Amino acid sequence: MISRIRELQSGRPFKRWQINRVRESSMVQRSIAMMLALLVVVSGWFSAVLTAAPTREQRTEVNLIRKDLLKAGNLYSQGKFKESGRLIGEIQGRVEKLAATKDPVVLRLMAGTITGLKKAHALLEIEGVELPALKIPSATDSPPTPTPPKPTDGKVSFVKQVAPILVSKCGRCHVNTARGMFSMANFETLMKGTPEGVVIFPKDADGSRIIEVIESGDMPRGGLKVAPDEMSLLKKWINEGAVYDAESKQTNLATLAPNTKVGEFAKVEVMQATGKETVSFSADIAPVLVKNCVNCHGLSRRPSGRFDLNSFQALLRGGQSGPPVLPGKPADSLLVKKLKGTGGGQQMPLQKPPLPTPVIAKIEKWIAEGAKFDGPDPAQAMGQVAALARARMGSHEQVSADRAKLAQQNWRLSMSNVQSAQVESKNFLLIGNIGPGRLEELAGKSEAVAVKVGGMLNAPAGKPLIKGRMTLYFFQQRYDYSEFGSMVEKRAIPKSWRGHWRYNVVDAYAVMVPPRSDEYSVDALIAQQLGSAYVASLGKVPNWFSEGIGRVMATRTAKEDARSLKWDEQLPAILAGTERPDAFLEGKVPPEDGNVLAYGFLKYLMRDSKKFSRFLAQVSGGAKFSDAFSTIYQGSPDQVVAVWAKNAKKSKR
């Protein structure tokens, strides 16, 4: 407990895993977390009182706020999150009023307050409570940023000489992104280095990691090279002290070198499969490479021999020894030679038994047929290519078993210390922390809703709604739902959501928080997710289309559902406030607004059930979405949206 208090007193913002440890989905631990946060506020105030001389009125207000904070903590511990949030919001206004005096004594008095309020915000927002942003000045003024030293004549300029090299050679992986958790986005992050340590030691080029990896040939990747004269400049700049000669160390390197283009990886020619080949890369070759080769040639930060097998493109590009595959020439391809042990050096895979002769023969056959690619994207991760092929070609039961394993992984990732209940039905694997009895009840509801949704969307009778059982996660608390989004999907779940779905062939799932009473219809919530996932499984359809259909399914399943009624209520205002009604087609409006617009548009399309059924039949039959849409609706989606929006606005006048 003492260590947790010290951690809170450090003033560092909560990380999600820290909040998770404090709370463990338990109301008691939630209360402890909230109370600790509030105790920090109080202790911060008292320490400030002892070191400053606030006025009598300020002392009185501090004492009153302290009492109200304790009330807020008690409300939180009772699960009354909204009431606690309202009180915290009121307290926040009073604190802001005190801080508005800009009196140094008052600002010091507020130092602990700000820390505590931030932590109260974090805990309450997880419960879906909206609070106004904190608008309180810092307790102390930040020291002025020192003017960076300028290089003297004859010395290397970071802005003019070093930044262009880094942008052109390293920009793709370390300026535009932070590959390997190393960012060169600006000078500050460059000098910070990687999680393992700094990469530049001023006045010691030979001891600097960045020079070592360039000289070893490990960097830069993708066929890019640092020329000898560029290397000399980098070394000279480091040995001169790694001086920075711009104003702000947070300025992006691409801004410092605006005329420098980010270097592109060496292009490789990918030949697409025609369907006449006897060997499939995705189904036959990729699984072999993933199982036997990717550990050394892809998953590590420094692939052996600089040969990266993370994608099909990387496979063709090769490593230090050049391209490993020569299409049409298996006997001359280094990949085959290394697998057979005839290519010099050690036979591959290293420290494993040689691949069986039939497996090598299949690789040879694939190369002889042109080394063609039959997956969706040659830049996609090799493991995903293999998994996608397995899911497409596998049986219902095989795909179900694979998804069950993924479900267990997702549960451990999001709810590591919580025992789950599980129920398996015809179409679904249900997993949750709501108790086995409730889960059994929801399994029955889900199967019944699946029949309704299938009927409304003309799904084939006698077949599973989606090949492979769909996983349905049910969480008791909104916080648990939020954690799933954070830990599994690496995103924040919109506060208004009580469920969402995901379908990518390999996995298919829905995540839901069932209502505790009659605040909304659980049947409608389930129908929304099933409708969206089913349509997504038919073919390559845009997300707005799937989302819109799911919400229409919810409305048709429970016409008086509170969530559905709210969408209908929100639609006119959102439509009126949108400059371009078709912006949601491109994802250029806030997610929830876009989903409501998609809902309204799909209601419009589905009014003519026969036409809509013909459209779905074409999409499920393999037709391109845009082509099928234009054929059935005599226009592109944006053109039809314009007609719908115009009619919708007229009907509301």
Salient structural properties:
single chain, 4 domains, five-stranded mixed sheet, mainly alpha, 26 helices, about 650 residues
Structure description:
The chain is mainly alpha-helical. The chain has helices spanning 2-9, 16-23, 27-51, 56-77, 81-99, 104-126, 158-174, 187-192, 209-215, 228-239, 253-256, 281-292, 312-317, 334-340, 357-368, 382-393, 396-414, 436-456, 478-487, 522-538, 543-557, 562-576, 591-605, 609-620, 625-633, 637-651; strands spanning 421-424, 428-432, 470-474, 499-503, 508-512. A hairpin with a 4-residue loop joins strand 4 and strand 5. Helix 3 runs antiparallel to helix 4 (56-77) and helix 17 (396-414) packs across helix 19 (478-487). The longest helix has 25 residues, at 27-51. The chain is globular, with a radius of gyration of 30 Å.
